[in-house]
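The data layer described in this paper is built around a simple, fixed record for each protein. We quote a single record here, exactly as it is kept in our systems:
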Amino acid sequence: MDVPRWLDEREDRAWRGYRRMRRLLDLELARELTQDAGLSEADYDVLSDLSETPQGRLRLRELADRMLWSRSRLSHHLTRMQQRGLVTREECADDARGSVVVLTPAGRRAIESAAPGHVAAVRRHLIDLLTPAEVDALGALTHRVVDHLGGRAPQPRHDAEL
């Protein structure tokens, strides 16, 4: 068995700081999104992903892959969003087993209403705290890690893991 390469003090400080920042930032952004727009982070992710497509539609499988969720978990969440009138589901024309998630007019209004406040919160709690060089560094490092992890097949998060 290989001997672990423990983090030195500098690396440990950076790692723990990143983890604490991520938790606090995620909590604050989620709190403000719920308070200001009545949407959960998952609602926002679904609506924003759909709103960025030309027709406001995505296959359920593709949406689940984007969110790193299991299809089952996403399907349950979409049922709740359907009950609120934010999305609908249609059968996939070229695959009877598949379904397509469609953004409704109410869903489009919800994301268009929520987006300005959410972007303002992202600015207030992260972007505006950084210098332009730090924004560039953050972009470079996040893309490097995503590219590294993206070389592997994404593993959807399962309900039991959350």
Observations:
- The two ends are 30 Å apart (CA to CA).
- Strands lie at 57-59, 87-92, 95-103.
- The domain at 9-120 is CATH 1.10.10.10 (Arc Repressor Mutant, subunit A).
